[in-house]
Design a protein that fits this description.
Strand content: 15-25%
Bound molecules: adenosine-5'-diphosphate, sodium ion
CATH superfamily: Ribokinase
CATH topology: UDP-N-acetylmuramoyl-L-alanine:D-glutamate ligase
Number of domains: 1
Number of helices: 11
Order of helices and strands: EEEHEEHEEEHHEHEHEHHEEEHHH
Shape: globular
Distance between the termini: 23 Å
CATH class: Alpha Beta
Strand order of the largest sheet: 4-1-9-10-11-12-13-14
Helix content: 25-40%
Structural class: alpha/beta
CATH architecture: 3-Layer(aba) Sandwich
Length: 301
């Protein structure tokens, strides 16, 4: 059985430097050697889906630079098809990350080529994403593009997993296409445009009432809330020794998409994703910490 996951989204080169503290205006600080990691939510989610065992294709846009070659090579190594990736005139997306001893990382993202994915480019790629069993999108590409693709894909019967990150308020028309919408607690509130006091279960119910066909709210070490027509339920996280949570949410999204494409129900998909992301937080990095399917199954057993 071929389970077909398409990810239309972002790819970023993560440039990481450790510094003793945040520099102030006008100051020059010496940091560590530069570390280069593959990142961007879309690329991470595609890598996770492929590691979990789905036939996965990444659809995005990178520049004509060395970072692009690096990102595409990493995706190919993870087993992701990259022949649908466009090369544009703008530089490859970049995240500049300062790691400070307080653990409060400072990050500047330059979206670059990711923001070249306009509706016209997405339409050129439509034959690919309309063939998906599960189409994954996030909001690191232009919102207008996501709104267009989500609407058209759902209308043509493609199952859409929208990870509304970074957070944005979403129209009910967009929510009605999401099966599921995946958000963290903060993003759930922004999507709803609501700051009322609510439990996580109530937030999930609110998102369903706002139109989402199904919803998953991730809660870090507390697990995730799953909601659909069958009700709302908490899936607890695994207790693990945390080393680096970077990209845990992306591992979760990719793994969920893989399981849904394989025909799992949403609760079972979230259980698998919870295990995959638990393993991911026990080692450094994002994509480099994603286990393969055998490792996830061994962990669950
Ligand atoms: P995001 O980074 O998008 O905010 P979360 O932090 O909610 O995402 O993490 C996504 C999922 O990864 C969680 O639902 C959980 O299953 C798993 N996870 C994250 N942090 C931990 C942790 N400290 N221990 C175990 N699992 C974790
Ligand atoms: Na990790």
């Amino acid at each position: 059985m071929v389970s077909n996951v398409m990810v239309l989204g972002s790819a970023n080169a993560d440039l990481v430097v450790e510094v003793p503290r945040r520099p102030s205006g006008g100051e020059t600080l010496l940091g560590s050697d530069l570390h280069l990691f593959p990142g961007g939510k879309g690329a991470n989610q595609a890598a996770a889906a492929a590691r979990a065992g789905a036939a996965t294709r990444f659809l995005g846009c990178v520049g004509r630079d060395a970072h692009a070659d690096f990102l595409l090579q990493n995706l190919a190594d993870a087993g992701v098809e990259v022949d649908g990736v466009r090369r544009g005139e703008r530089p490859t997306g970049t995240a500049m990350i300062l790691l400070t001893p307080d653990g409060e990382n400072s990050i500047v993202v330059s979206p670059g080529a990711n923001y070249s994915i306009d509706v016209a480019m997405a339409e050129e790629l439509a034959p690919a994403w309309l063939a998906a069993d599960v189409l994954v999108l996030n909001l690191e590409v232009p919102l207008e593009t996501v709104v267009h693709v989500v609407g058209r894909a759902a209308a043509e019967g493609v199952r859409v997993l929208l990870n509304a990150a970074p957070a944005a308020h979403l129209d009910p028309v967009v929510l009605q296409a999401c099966d599921p919408l995946v958000v963290n607690e903060y993003e759930a509130r922004i999507v709803l445009g609501s700051d009322r006091e609510a439990t996580f279960e109530e937030l999930a119910a609110d998102l369903l009432a706002a139109g989402a066909r199904s919803v998953v709210i991730t809660l870090g070490a507390a697990g995730a809330v799953v909601g659909d027509a069958d009700g709302v339920e908490v899936v607890p996280a695994h207790r693990v020794e945390v080393v680096d949570t970077t990209g845990a949410g992306d591992a979760f999204v990719g793994a969920t998409a893989c399981e849904l494409a394989r025909g799992a129900n949403l609760r079972d998909a979230v259980r698998f994703a919870t295990a995959m992301s638990a393993i991911a937080v026990t080692s450094k990095g994002a994509q480099s910490s994603y286990p393969d399917r055998d490792a996830v199954e061994a962990f669950i057993r």
